[in-house]
């Protein structure tokens, strides 16, 4: 938000800029069934602990009063280091708080009706969506389209863009 006006900069307010973009955005979200997601979160926390999270957290003890350490993982281990919790309790709370954070993220993203949701293993479905949209764009502009896509999905999102250029040829990026 603007400090002086206390108004947000959403929708081009106070920026003097148009909200119209010279490209379209296709939003693709990756989701897993809740049980699978939570199981993966728990396993990831265990992996982090086994890979040195305790040592890393202990080295940050001199900075424990800094707000940056009031995050999932550090704040629970700080309670363990102060003797308030057992190590097992701290790990369980890291897992629980990580699951809560994931649920908050899902709630946030689920409010966006433009997101096309897929399971991460559904690469075929994702590529079908990309091909379908790319075909519609190329048909609308009577252009041939070169679609460039990755052979595997390693990131959490894919962006399809129409790039303003002399020929205004739509393309896909992964």
In short:
With 174 residues, this protein is mainly alpha-helical. 44% of the residues lie in helices and 9% in strands.
Structure commentary:
With 174 residues, this protein is mostly helical. It has helices at residues 34-59, 74-81, 87-110, 123-141, and strands spanning 27-30, 115-118, 159-162, 170-173. It has a two-stranded parallel sheet with strand order 1-2. A two-stranded antiparallel ribbon has the order 3-4. A hairpin with a 7-residue loop joins β3 (159-162) and β4. α1 (34-59) crosses α3 (87-110) and α2 (74-81) runs antiparallel to α3. 10% of the residues are buried.
How much is the average pLDDT? 79
Give the terminus-to-terminus CA distance: 32 Å
Structural class: mainly alpha
| Low-pLDDT ranges | 147-174
What general form does the structure show?
A: elongated
Tell me about the largest β-sheet: 2 strands, parallel
Helix fraction, binned, reads 40-55%
Integer-rounded radius of gyration: 22 Å
The order of strands across the largest sheet is 1-2
Based on DSSP secondary structure assignment, what is the total number of beta strands? Answer: 4
Number of helices: 4
Strand content: 5-15%
Order of helices and strands: EHHHEHEE
Features:
mainly alpha, 174 residues, disordered C terminus
Q: How is the topology of this model organized?
A:
Blueprint: E1 27-30, H1 34-59, H2 74-81, H3 87-110, E2 115-118, H4 123-141, E3 159-162, E4 170-173
Parallel strand pairs: 1-2
Antiparallel strand pairs: 3-4
Helix pairs in contact: 1-3, 2-3
């Amino acid at each position: 938000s603007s400090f002086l006006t206390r108004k947000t900069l959403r929708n081009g307010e106070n920026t003097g800029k148009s909200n119209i973009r010279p490209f379209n955005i296709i939003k693709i979200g990756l989701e897993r069934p809740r049980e699978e997601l939570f199981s993966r979160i728990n396993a990831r926390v265990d992996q982090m602990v086994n890979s040195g999270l305790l040592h890393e957290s202990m080295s940050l003890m001199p900075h424990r009063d800094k707000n940056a350490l009031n995050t999932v993982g550090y704040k629970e281990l700080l309670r363990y280091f102060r003797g308030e919790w057992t190590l097992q309790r701290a790990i369980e709370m890291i897992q629980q708080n990580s699951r809560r954070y994931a649920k908050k993220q899902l709630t946030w993203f689920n409010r966006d009706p433009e997101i096309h949701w897929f399971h991460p293993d559904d690469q075929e479905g994702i590529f079908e969506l990309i091909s379908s949209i790319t075909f519609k764009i190329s048909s609308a502009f009577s252009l041939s389209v070169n679609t460039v896509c990755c052979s595997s999905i390693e990131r959490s999102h894919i962006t399809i863009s129409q790039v303003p250029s002399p020929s205004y040829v739509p393309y896909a990026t992964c």
